[in-house]
Amino acid sequence: MDFNKAIKQSISNFLEGRVPKALMELKEGELIYTPEYFDALEEDLKNEPEVKKEDDIDEV
Amino acid sequence: MKFEGPIPGENYLTDTKNYPWHRPPDLVDYDEAVSYMLDKIDEPEQIELVFAMLQIEAHVATVVSTLLLQGISKGKFSIDLAMLMAGPLARYIEIKANNSGVKHKMGVEKDDRMVLTPTLLKAALGIVEQPEEESEEIKSLREEAGPNEITQEQMMGLMSMPQNTGAAPAAEQAEMLGQVEEDPEEELEEEPV
Fold first, then answer.
1. CA of B65 to nearest chain A CA: how many angstroms apart?
2. Which of the residues B13, B50, B104, B136 could staple to B97 if both were Cys, CB 3.0 to 4.6 A apart?
3. How many domains does chain A have?
4. Nearest by CB to B95, which of A6, A13, A45?
5. Closest chain B residue to the Cα of A50, Cα to Cα
6. In a 3-state reduction of DSSP, which class is residue B188?
7. H helices present in B14-161, as ranges
8. Cα–Cα distance between A12 and A6 in angstroms, integer?
């Protein structure tokens, strides 16, 4: 298996929500960058209110 | 004779620490390494490059592979750790692209997979369907129509081969080929002066 195929396989596994068990065991605390973390990040970015441009802000 | 080749055993004496990836990597922790790469992607120049690559229809997997190879070549992390980081980076780029409205393809979809259909499943399981029996109405209609025979003439088209394919008589063939000698006297008799 070449590098690019391995990368694709890794991405595919992560997108399906699979994280290597050995990595979880190796890490003493909990992993930060898990599939759940990115799902939450995506939701936060979706719900984030759009920042108004300076021109749009009415001068008082 | 090859005089410029390496001396046997030279590899044992060469300093292998000339390249960054020959030395221990800077980052060995998964979260630290992913955090480093996410910060790197967030840099304005880097995110512009990532979006530009996606806009020329490069897959996210290709972009991730390029970024990771850069990190490996700089000795930031090992190849093994890069493999583990590929998923989070791809997901982060996907989120960033979605948020910015940049069209992208992940590059991990299995486009060439066979679509499973009921017919395919039946064929795979060896299930052979029995043809349904004709209803009485269809049977009576078929009988009324009579035998469905096509005559030889109906089958014949304009360009079809003629039925009588026997060879023409020898005299006719000779005439067609212009091999018949004409009698010059006959012509003279026919045309009186």
1. 7
2. B104
3. 1
4. A45
5. B99
6. helix
7. 30-42, 44-55, 60-73, 79-100, 118-125, 136-145, 152-155
8. 10
pLDDT exceeds cutoff 50 at A60? no
Q: Which three-class secondary structure state does DSSP give residue A52? A: coil
Average pLDDT score, chain A: 81
Question: What percent of chain A is predicted at pLDDT more than 90?
Answer: 33
The predicted structure's pLDDT at residue B60: 94
Average pLDDT over chain B, rounded to whole? Answer: 83
State the amino acid at position A21 in one-letter form.
K
Judged by a CB distance cut-off of 8 A, whether residue A24 touches chain B is no
Question: Residue A33: which domain range?
Answer: 3-47
- In this prediction the pTM is 0.59
Least confident of B52-66, B87-101, B160-174: B160-174
CA–CA gap between residue B37 and residue B71 (Å, rounded): 8
Of the segments A24-38, A41-55, B136-150, which one has the largest average pLDDT value?
Answer: A24-38
Chain CA centroid to CA B97, Å: 28
How far is Cα B26 from Cα B29, in angstroms, rounded to an integer? 9
Examine residue A35 and state whether it is found in any structural domain, yes or no.
Answer: yes
Q: Single out the residue of B87, B181, B84, B129 nearest to residue A26, CA to CA.
A: B84
Please say if the pLDDT value at position B15 is more than 90: no
Examine the predicted complex and report whether its ipTM is higher than 0.95.
Answer: no
Length of chain B equals 193
Asked whether the beta carbons of B78 and B25 are under 8 A apart, the reply is: yes
Give the tokens for residue A27: 């890490």
> Can you tell me the distance from the alpha carbon of B124 to that of B36, in angstroms, rounded to the nearest whole number?
49
The amino acid present at B30, given as its one-letter code, is: Y
| Structure-token match 């980076």, residue found | B89
Residue B148 has pLDDT above 80, yes or no: no
